[in-house]
Design a protein that fits this description.
The structure holds two protein chains of two kinds. Chain A has seven helices and 19 strands. By secondary structure, chain A is an alpha/beta fold. In chain A, a hairpin with a 2-residue loop joins strand 6 (about 90-95) and strand 7 (about 100-105). The radius of gyration of chain A is 24 Å and the shape is elongated. Chain B is built from three helices and five strands; from the N terminus they run ββαβααββ. Classes of the chains: A alpha/beta, B alpha+beta. Chains A and B meet through loops of A and helix 3 of B.
Chain lengths: ~350, ~110
Amino acid sequence: MSELLSTDVAIIGAGPIGLFAVFELGLLDIKAHLIDILPKAGGQCAELYPEKPIYDIPGFPVINGQDLVDNLRKQIEPFGPKFHLGEMVEGMEVLGAPEHPLFRIATDNDKTIEAKSVFIAAGGGSFQPKKPPIPGLDAYENKSVFYSVRRMEHFKGRRVVIVGGGDSALDWALNLHPVADRITLVHRRDAFRAAPHSVNAMRELVNSGDMEFVLGQVTGVKGDNSQLSALTIRRENGEHYDHPCDDMLPFFGLTMKLGPIANWGINLNENLIPVDTAKFETSVPGIFAIGDINTYPGKLKLILSGFHEATLAAQRAHRYVYPDKKLTFQYTTSSTSLQRKLGVT
Amino acid sequence: MPKITFVDASGESRSVEAQVGATVMETALRNSIPGIEAECGGACACATCHVYVSEAWTEKTGKASQMEEDMLDFAFEVRPNSRLSCQIKVSEELDGLSVTTPAKQG
């Protein structure tokens, strides 16, 4: 049974722009839910460069990605946004009339969220697993080749090859070890960027003969009817051999893909969403696009530009959330009503 | 200005002028070289600017750092001459450098 939730604005993407949109909406008494495919808020700032200094955030001569995210989260705390992390928005339906639309969003975690307006703040798209360029690999996906583990039972009694040297590869090698018939870890070098305790645990299992480690790279797949029978592996010395197996789990990190957004009936221009620069609204009334995902004449993919876009989009979204209320512009420095919302009076 | 040649997976080659101090990745982006994605913008955080340095140049470009080696784990078809082009800084010494882009970055 899917969970049905309701809010004013559904924000797709919990990166810096999605987070700041909560603030600007909150000042206008608009409640928001944020949905992000990553298990944490912060988008690229948190996933790609948490330690990287950013020099062009106004008022901060230098701030790193994670600190910026932490500050934004603190800034939006008074508005109590609801986060749906580790979930991808798969479907979106537009209900109601164009002047009074209602959007029904479905996540891959079986949640349905109804909102009066949608902000797409999806940056470069959703982070999805990188798929190795092995010919014919896609035919085995979800049956014999997996980029994440949803059901551990599937691997019961199976010969599993895990490819990679990071935390995902090592964690799953260790977690699936008691379940699977045999685990083989394939990695291009005898060094691992995973947590040292995982690496040690893996090495112990390899030393005792309970796990196999192959130094090499997978170059081919063999099998029938979406079921793998073997992988062709090139060893470090250049030699190829066939390694019998039932399942493969490649872990090569994440890449950004536009994903399901392309199927929502919004006009796109080369994987970006065209918007106007007064409202940052898309071709579908009530759906806004802010941050790196939008495009307009003069667009710069800067966090500071995204903040401006979120602010103007929030003003317009007020009409969809409160069609009968007039919006008066106020400053946080002087408005007691805004200060009350922020909890500072 | 040093010249850098980018050869794509199909063998097509493009030579461009590079600024000393810029990275090979930045040089590729400025000249719209296909096959370099640079998703993270040069933070050594994504492995989508992977190149193979031509054998004659591997000594001059040097070896990948520890962090870069870690990140190369996320690239495909990694070879001994694999580097992330965001980590190679252009110098006069690299005039004539040739790199090949892989068939797939991400």
